[in-house]
Amino acid sequence: MILLLGDQLGLHHGAMKNARAGVDSILMAEVREEASYVRHNRHKIALIFAAMRHCRDELRAQGFTVIYYRYEDGKGSLLDAVQAGLQDCNAEAVRCCEPGEFRLLKEMRQWTLPVPLEIIPDDRFLASHDDFSDWMRGRKQLRMEYFYRVMRRRYAILLDADGGPEGGKWNYDTSNRKGWRASESIPARPEVVMDDVTREVIELVKREFPEHPGDLDRFYLGVTAAQAQEHLDWFVDSALPDFGKYQDALAEESPWLFHSLVSMYLNIGLLDPLAVCRQVEQAWRDGRCDIAAAEGFIRQILGWREYVRGIYWSTMPEYAQRNELAAERPLPDWFWSGATDMRCLQLALEQTLELGYAHHIQRLMVIGNFALLAGLNVEQVCAWYLAVYVDAFEWVELPNTLGMALHADGGLMASKPYAASGKYIQRQGNHCKQCRYSPSKTTGSGACPYNSLYWHFIDRHLERFRENPRMNLVVANWERRDHTERTVIVKWADRELNSLAPTKALA
Ligand code: FAD
Ligand code: DLZ
Question: What is the total count of domains within the chain?
């Protein structure tokens, strides 16, 4: 019996590789525990249940026997489902592909079943655990850029005839930082056509998860591999050419600008990461986008995505406990409503809660930056990120949040914290024009809170940052100011921090 998890729906990989129709039974189960271990966004639950049901139908059409438990069947956990499934079929063993979260792997290793459980490696990724360990061995610093170059060579992506990087550079990051001034039009995304299976799931999720975030009247996701591919094709044709330029931009007009919205499909197996990279490389070779766009996009998937997964599995479970900057301030209540006057944060939170989506710069430099500067409790922030995004699974969410955004791993992933004042947000987009706070003021009424919080953050970690060569300039800048000025800024920031009411409803 093959246990097929809700985020392992690629039918040529994992436990489905070499599966035999008519011989192996497939078990799929919508279960309470997986749907509620955090307050998942309803878009995520709807996506997974709808994708699972479509996958079930496809497998049956291919001649497989599928034992499928719907949420209404009341299975509490995957273990309950496996035990029930084993009573329905005469299986000699259960096979499952390694789950994407340590939590579930640990549980599975403790399952007691009447037949052996075989957990096989997850081959949907481009670097195995051993590949990553080999790369880590003997390195003092685990910088993504060097890992990425190894991956480019290994998969021969964007390489010239001599094996060097196409265009002469490995990384076009400096061409990916244009701010948004609303001077170009943003292409409209294709509408998703829903069938009865998806509509039924949406009604179920609305009914069963009333306390979870997510406005399902705005459901916008594909739920089959074919639909995911259509979304990717649309991106390559219509948004990729501008992706590189505006990768780091923040826009009032759009929650997604020129981003691809494919993370959720990659993470649940509806798209294959290598095929996605090759399709984008081909678009560049055909002259349909420039090298900065293609490289910038491929770096995210071949580089960052594989790298964060490597960090996760090589450091868990200890990684989840890290809190090097001793950030303990309770998560404010408005992380669950978006009710703040900081315009950039308000929009990022609202779209996150309503749609389960925010693009990378919103996650890192708007929400994450605020959490970093305010010293919000690392565990609570990580639980929040795991709950609210449609693409959130701990293997990718945790290193990005704890490591990249909160610097709570002490610099294992990033040599300096991604901390920025309101000036950065102003440069990257057009939110500040709509905001009641001014990015050019640091203290006093109407001052952008990011400004004083930025200096408060530098001030409270001064000893640590003095030791970091990449923070020298900013430390010197702070220490050059006179004592009175610094005291006024720190006091103003304290006022801002004291006004953050803690959340009543933690995930
Ligand atoms: P695009 O901007 O179009 O990028 C293309 C693809 O590259 C993405 O689909 C994704 O698969 C990959 N990618 C880009 N950046 C990263 C990254 N840093 N790590 C891993 N893959 C990346 N991504 C998730 O998939 N799940 C998460 O739970 C998640 N949590 C995050 C939390 C924080 C604090 C931060 C800073 C980033 C997080 N990311 C996460 C990474 C990234 O923000 C999302 O992958 C991206 O925003 C998804 O939107 P997109 O598909 O439009 O991406
Ligand atoms: C995220 C999720 C949800 C919401 N529901 C289910 C489910 O009912 N059944 C299932 O098999 N998987 C689900 N998943 C995905 C799992 O949580 C995921 O496999 C683990 O977190 C490991 O990545």
Answer: 3
